[in-house]
Design goal:
Number of helices: 14
Strand content: under 5%
Oligomer: single chain
Largest sheet: none
Radius of gyration: 21 Å
Shape: globular
Number of domains: 1
Order of helices and strands: HHHHHHHHHHHHHH
Length: 323
């Protein structure tokens, strides 16, 4: 929350609001409309990515609804709690073990970080004066490589991890509430890393998903900067994605806009106009996923209060033998 407030304060203090409003007025809304359509395409491909990670244990429609429900919760709750929310919802609706679903979300977010790093490293040689981005991406790249390596080793040697868990379970009784079957379910979700056919399928879908995202962002940027280059879109999306990777305020308000303005400023673009782009793109994303998420919740007969209450009951009633 503090980071978001600092970002908002900085943006409010240094934005020329007359230029901001003028940029909103002069924007190409035809391009923005095309970008909105691509938002739906992006969400659909995102559903295919997650369904593949889930090993087709849930229908596309259930997965698509859960994704939008998760984004709705992320827009309303801090620390990206929507990720836990969508795991809980899909687990219950599709009859899949919760920890299996959670492990697929870990993989999904890892693929995203890897793609963001690829975008940054592929564009950094063409962007002048962005040492901050180079240093940040190197640090994140090291983290992601360690994470992927660790997940791969865990997926390759599940029995070893289970034995270690049993060892500590005997010495620390509080670990017994995390059932053995829950850990097995989590490990099963990591099996994508050891199945090369599924790994290639997921990787291809992730690349397609990010390709749609680049095109979508390019249309939004071009709506405010007619001279926009694809380089700007690729670099900006990489910076924004890394900026949003860390848990923050509901909807990442302030953080997303600050990352966008910082990325586009590297190309000497007007920061007030860049903020107009950032606010527009972010608002569209929040509205589309919010509407789709609310419709999905209503169709399931759910409310935000019900989800909170059921999550608390599930936590209180959780038995060590359950996953």
């Amino acid at each position: 929350m503090l980071i978001s407030l600092v970002c908002l304060g900085f943006l409010v203090a240094f934005t020329d609001w007359a230029q901001f409003l003028n940029a909103i007025r002069l924007a190409n809304y035809g391009l923005i409309g095309s970008g909105m359509f691509l938002s739906l395409v992006w969400l659909a491909v995102r559903g295919l990515v997650w369904r593949s990670l889930l090993q087709e244990k849930a229908s596309f429609w259930l997965v698509f609804r859960a994704i939008n429900q998760g984004y709705l919760l992320n827009n309303l709750l801090p620390f990206r709690l929507g990720e836990l929310g969508r795991a809980f919802l899909l687990s219950r609706r599709a009859g899949i073990r919760l920890f299996f679903v959670l492990s697929t979300i870990v993989l999904e977010r890892t693929f995203d970080l890897l793609m963001a790093i690829v975008l940054l490293f592929s564009t950094l040689p063409f962007v002048v004066g962005v040492e901050w981005a180079r240093q940040a991406s190197l640090g994140v790249a090291l983290f992601v490589l360690i994470l992927i390596g660790s997940l791969y080793l865990i997926a390759r040697q599940p029995r070893l991890l289970l034995s270690i868990f049993e060892f500590f379970q005997k010495r620390f009784p509080f670990l017994k509430r995390f059932g053995h079957t829950a850990l097995e379910a989590f490990l099963q979700g990591l099996s994508t890393l050891t199945d090369w056919r599924r790994f290639l399928l997921v990787s291809s879908l992730v690349i397609l998903n990010w390709g749609v995202g680049i095109l979508q962002y390019h249309l939004y940027i071009q709506a405010f900067f007619p001279q926009a280059q694809v380089l700007w879109s690729v670099f900006s999306l990489g910076v924004i994605s890394l900026g949003l990777a860390a848990p923050s305020s509901p909807g990442s308000v302030g953080v997303a806009e600050m990352a966008s303005v910082g990325a586009l400023s590297a190309f000497g673009l007007n920061p007030s106009t860049a903020l107009a782009f950032a606010v527009t793109a972010h608002l569209i994303q929040v509205l589309i996923t919010g509407i789709l998420g609310a419709l999905a919740l209503a169709q399931d007969g759910e409310s935000l209060f019900d989800l909170y209450r059921q999550a608390r009951l599930a936590k209180e009633d959780h038995h060590p033998a359950e996953g």
